[in-house]
Amino acid sequence: MTEIQYRLPQQRRVGEFPGPNSRALAERRADVVASGAASGVPVYAADADGGVIVDVDGNSFIDLGSGIAVTSVGASHPAVASAVAEQAARFTHTCFMVTPYEGYVELAEELARVTPGDHEKRSVLFNSGAEAVENAVKIARHATGRKAIVVFDHAYHGRTNLTMALTAKAMPYKTGFGPFAPEVYRVPMSYPYREEAEIKGEDAAQRAITMIDKQIGADQVAAILIEPIQGEGGFIVPAEGFLPALADWAKEKGIAFIADEVQSGFCRTGAWFASEHEGLVPDIVTMAKGIAGGLPISAVTGRAELLDAVHPGGLGGTYGGNPIACAAALAAIGVMREADLSSRAQQIEGIVLPRLRAVDEALGEQSVIGDIRGRGAMLAFELVQPGTARTTKEPNPQAAKAIAAACLEAGVVILTSGTYGNVIRLLPPLVISDGLLAVALDVLESAVQAQV
Ligand SMILES: *Cc1c(COP(=O)(O)O)cnc(C)c1O
């Protein structure tokens, strides 16, 4: 990675927590902001750069969340900031469906280059991950003339009506929000740590395929939609061979294979896309989070024959592919390429994984760490009740909560996830310095040790 110039001091500094200015904002918020829009952290951001978030009281937190895998290039990368300012000074919006502009075309060219496969591709741009997933489904249905969509246990695909149906977890994402969209079918994921008996990736794929065949019928299926590494589900990396076997079968049956790379994309896992780790070439890829250094933009890129099956005007939206967001994405992708952030993500894996394994080993038989997994800078550990790591694997969401809270109070922002709420996930900005990462890991280690 090329040397990075940071604007803010890369340090951890926590005084009063939450400080008076954050507390005052919390009071104002309670009167006007809907309680459904909750925040994990009780402090309010004032500034952020590289690996730190500075709050309105001057506390400086080490960021191990990147705003959920978004600010991979940092939250104020100068290349992104200046691209945004330049574009905003020229025009903020014309609507691509009315008056098109170069940035959209240029971003589609970039997406054709960086997504897996060298087939002819087309792209269409939206605003959020959920919107990208919805549109990928629209495209697959239109192109195949079929209706059924296959999704997996532990999947997360968003919060709009269709994507709620695609998402597995009821609380907090679905409870009370039905009725949900029809023609969505859920099949078993490959979740190596929680399989009843060890099962090869190919066999786990066959288990899902048999269910699809028997319960839906392959010829009814428009798409198989899957996160190559599940995000909210707890950074579940399927057994080797699972994804390729599914993709091969989909191809044979004329089913579109959609990789939801909204969280795993853009260098996060040590490659442009997580699909690449198993040589997977999805028919359609959905992207959002890491794409634009924090600006809201998402994309669907896929085989030309699938995307071009849709009639003109069938895809779009007022803001989709906003010119400022396109400029930000082009700048962020440029940074990823020049700074080789995929290699940086691999380095982060090389720093963090051994450290987590050492923490686990030191805890011995009573360790609350059941599983350590992930790729690149998309890493997680799953917490279980003491002593059950190799036996009943009883989820320990209390420990995950307590660890995240302890880290936060000590100045490290960390996220939880997982179907059982028992996973600590690490998503540092890829531009975090080794020094800052080491401090964060010290804090995390103490927080985990305090659980035993
Ligand atoms: C976050 C996420 C989404 C939804 O993205 P939004 O921008 O929040 O709508 C969809 N799929 C995956 C895999 C995600 O992680």
List strands and helices in order, with pairings.
Layout: H1 20-32, E1 45-49, E2 52-55, E3 60-63, H2 66-69, H3 78-90, H4 102-114, E4 121-126, H5 129-144, E5 148-152, H6 161-166, E6 184-187, H7 201-215, E7 221-226, H8 242-252, E8 256-260, E9 284-287, E10 298-303, H9 304-307, H10 323-338, H11 341-363, E11 369-375, E12 378-383, H12 397-409, E13 412-413, E14 415-417, E15 423-426, H13 434-449
Parallel strand pairs: 3-13, 5-6, 5-7, 7-8, 8-9
Antiparallel strand pairs: 1-2, 2-3, 4-10, 9-10, 11-12, 12-15, 14-15
Helix pairs in contact: 3-10, 4-10, 7-8, 11-13, 12-13
This protein binds pyridoxal-5'-phosphate.
Describe the model:
The protein is α/β, with parallel strands linked by helices. It contains 13 helices and 15 strands. The strands form 3 sheets. A 7-stranded mixed β-sheet has the order 4-10-9-8-7-5-6, sandwiched between helices. The mean pLDDT is 97. It binds pyridoxal-5'-phosphate.
- Binned, the helix content reads 25-40%
Given helix and strand content, the structural type is alpha/beta
Distance between the termini: 37 Å
The major beta sheet can be summarized as: 7 strands, mixed
Low-confidence stretches: none
Order of helices and strands: HEEEHHHEHEHEHEHEEEHHHEEHEEEH
The spatial strand order of the largest sheet comes to 4-10-9-8-7-5-6
Average of per-residue pLDDT values: 97
Strand runs, count: 15
The backbone outline, from C-alpha atoms, is globular
> How big a fraction of the residues is strand?
15-25%
What is the rounded Rg? 22 Å
Ligands, ions, cofactors: pyridoxal-5'-phosphate
The total of helices stands at 13
